Amino acid sequence: MKGPLRRCLATREVLPKEAMIRFVVGPENQVVPDLTGRLPGRGMWLKADARALETALKKGGFSRAAKGGVKVPDNLAEVLRYLLSERLADLLGMARRAGAAVAGFQKVQEWLQAKRVGVLVEATDGSEAERARLVGRAELPVVVALPRERMGQAFGREAAVHVAIAPGKLADAIRQEASRLSGLSPAD
User: Fold this and answer.
1) Domain span(s) for CATH 3.30.1230.10 in the chain
2) Residue range 6-12: mean pLDDT, rounded
3) Is the pLDDT assigned to residue 188 strictly greater than 70?
4) How far is Cα 27 from Cα 21, in angstroms, rounded to an integer?
5) Which residue windows are coiled coil (predicted)?
6) pLDDT digits (tens, 9 = 90+) for 47-106
7) Which residue among 64, 104, 111, 183 is the one 20 to 30 A from 97 at the CA level?
8) Which residues partner with 181 through β-bridges?
């Protein structure tokens, strides 16, 4: 394991910060998600996993970690999924504006052939057959996290099913946020 490690308040596992979500206690004694890790206060860390969140909610893990009673929103799982999907969409938009992303089957295919892709982002409601046809035998990280309409909004279009991100920090951040989002998504 590389980088700073933190202990999950539910599972007690020691994991890298990137695999976890930080929470702080807000001014009204309310548990607040801190996705960027920049809010003031003592951090409470939770593994980005739906079962870990469920365990923390059932067993009072947040109160134990905060060393006192705290208010936990009833819809914390939905709030986390929403915040992570918005953060992911913002990162896609940032990559587009930086010239580090393209959308559309043809453009993505061109980037794949030129080996300019650090991560491939696919729509959750896109065709698996088209995804397989596009990726072929290329060995690259593929992220399936957002619906086509939400991905399209990041590119100023109605929908986007295939998005290629150039290698670099934005690709790493997108991969990390998508991993945290998929961990919190309910099992099918």
Assistant:
1) 5-74
2) 96
3) no
4) 19
5) none
6) 999 999 999 999 999 999 999 999 999 999 999 999 999 999 999 999 999 999 999 999
7) 183
8) none
- Concatenating the DSSP letter of every residue in 44-91 gives EEEES-HHHHHHHHHTTHHHHHHTS--B--TTHHHHHHHHHHHHHHHH
Please determine, looking at this structure, whether the domain spanning 79-184 carries the CATH number 3.30.300.20. Answer: no
Residues 6+ apart with CB under 8 A from 100: 165, 166, 168, 170, 171
In the predicted structure, residue 163 carries a pLDDT above the cut 80: yes
Which 8-state DSSP code applies to residue 155? Answer: T
**pTM for the model:** 0.91
Domain with CATH 3.30.1330.30 in the chain: 79-184
- The answer to whether residues 31 and 162 touch, using CB atoms and an 8 Å cutoff, is no
Q: Which residues pair with 46 in a beta bridge?
A: 21
Fold of 5-74: Hypothetical Cytosolic Protein; Chain: A; (3.30.1230)
Edge-to-edge strands of the sheet including 20-25?
A: 31-34, 20-25, 44-47
